[in-house]
Amino acid sequence: SRSAESVVEEIEGVSADIILFSDDNFFTEPKRAEKICDLIIERKIKKRFVAQTRIDLAEYPELLKKIVKAGFKMLLLGIESPHDRILANLNKGFDQATIRKRFSVFRKYPILYHGYYIYGNIGETEEEMLYISKFSKEIGLDSIAFSKLRLDKYSPLKEIVENTPGYHLTVRGEVYSDRYSHSYLKKIHRKLLSKIL
Asked: What's this model's pTM, rounded to 2 decimal places?
């Protein structure tokens, strides 16, 4: 990956006031991320930053302090589901208890937190889908976005969908079931919107 210095030089050359780091690996090397923040602070770069990241960033409180000082205003986090069995199916590598624990750390820092979710997962009930909004409030998210489960042709979940009775894929890779049709999932989407934060 590029050096901290070259990243910060590029930031200095950008005229925009707000910069989005769309690489969710940006914080996976905490020392490099700290160096980037240190350089932003040192060079008094007055911009606002938004970054995609993983919830394990909460394990680095020193880095979180520097993120705030450097001007990061919002973190975009892929949570995907509040339900342990669905998180396991999606190979997220964490469970609901871990999400809650990480957010108890995040809430100590004055940053906006945006969570991404997937609904319509295999075996997920309507009640479980609608719990997304409540769970988001419980953990302290500021905003959320959600999309229907959708698979590309190389997804390991594709085989599970094909071997689960009552589940189907549209041509575009959207998953639906005998219980929750494509149009019923749209209704759930509207209900989720009505319950949004």
From this structure: 0.91
